[in-house]
Amino acid sequence: MHKVLLVDDESWVVESLKDLVDWERHGFEVVGQAYKGADALALMKALKPDVVFTDIRMPEMNGLELIQRGRSLDHPVQFVVVSGYAEFAYAQKAIAYGAVAYCLKPFDETEITGVLAKLDKLLTAARPAPASALLYYLEEPSDANRLRLLAELDGKGFGDWRADGLVPVVAVGAGDLPMPGAKAVRLKTGASKTAYLLPAARADELASAWREPVPLGLSGIGVGGPVRDLSEIRAGIDAADALAHQFFVTRECGVYAAQPFRQDELNRLMADMSRAIAAQSAGAVQAAFKGIVELFAVRSLSVLHAFQVYNMTVAFLFKLGQTEETLYSYEQLIQSYRDVFDMLDALEALVARDLAPAADPQPPESKNRNFNAILQYVTQHFREELSLQSLSEQFYMNPSYISQLFRKEVGETLTGYVARLRIEHARELLGGGELTMQEIAERIGYQDYFYFTRLFKKMTGKTPTQYRSERQ
């Protein structure tokens, strides 16, 4: 049922509207009524209605102001304006402020039922599909979604999962995890990635079964620690996701659980690296890289540490005036390099090149021509996996030089430019209403649902769900 709040400063108007139609038959439920704008706003915060029918002319806070203030709440609301004044200016303002319909008093049953049909279509399109509902609940935290998530988990028959715990598991690859006799929640978080929540009592048994052999089509399986509270689930999935990508370090398909890592030793080596680059000491740089390689070779570091090494080294080079690309996620590393040792080789070569005497600059007349070809290619292929290294191989140019061209000619990095193109395309797709959030993320080139939603909110100030609701 879609929840409705009725607002008018005359109580008889509210009652007449409430009694006019069979709300439940049309999929709606009147959950509250208010006679002042301020009271309506308070009820909107408490009841979180899907739809608000509001009069325009009310004392103190009128209907237009209520719409404006209601738009700033943390949950999407559709507004229908009702008024006894058949003035186009009011209707125009109401629509401009985001109302989906404008109805005149006295109410006509046929008109109201038509509005309800339109609202039902809008709200159903904005609602996540069942397969992605749990992802939506995790990504859009609110009291209502917390209750829905609890209901979903309690309905799976896990027993007292708050006491016993649920274990988040993430599988990377095209295959699926066998769950013989086990209840589990399955969340498709990417084109080639699936997260599961399963009872802690079965986790060790199932993990052992997945080891020999690893299910066909999977590269890595990450088994997180037990969670006993809703607030821990998202972080638990993120931790299991990182463990699932540990094959980047081990170069083996496998099942990976949490283990102690040698973070302090890595911190010391990265401090050595910083001093070596600042002093432009090639020998000290080599020694630092050798120590880091040894830590990864004995599997004492994770894919998160590989991500840390890459971005910190790039940051050290930035102090020398270099402009290499920083990365937003460890998945970008995996898309760019075969494994962590391939990454370290490339990174060491990059540092060595930047510490060497500067080569003769490129002829100025060739820069724009070269960059135009690269920019055109990136603009046409932004949905695909792109990196400085792949562009370097395609256009036979130094990756550092391509990075410098992007900063100079576009004013941002390659990664930033591609992200902007992708989010702009996502905004177009969100306006259509036919695709799920997961499908949109994959269409624009992001295989991780959570990463897409974080980036979208960072660049637009709204979550994809909020943006779609406002557009509709």
TrEMBL record:
4-aspartylphosphate modified-residue sites: D55
Main location: cytoplasm
UniProt organism field: Paenibacillus artemisiicola
Lineage, broadest ranks: Bacteria, Bacillati, Bacillota, Bacilli, Bacillales
Protein name (Swiss-Prot/TrEMBL): Response regulator
UniProt key word Nucleus: no
Keywords noted in UniProt: Cytoplasm, DNA-binding, Phosphoprotein, Transcription, Transcription regulation, Two-component regulatory system
Transcription regulation listed as a keyword: yes
SUPFAM superfamilies per record: CheY-like, Homeodomain-like
SMART domains associated with the record: HTH_ARAC, REC
UniProt-listed PROSITE patterns: HTH_ARAC_FAMILY_1, HTH_ARAC_FAMILY_2, RESPONSE_REGULATORY
Localization per Swiss-Prot or TrEMBL: Cytoplasm
Domain Response regulatory: 3-120
Superkingdom, taxonomy of origin: Bacteria
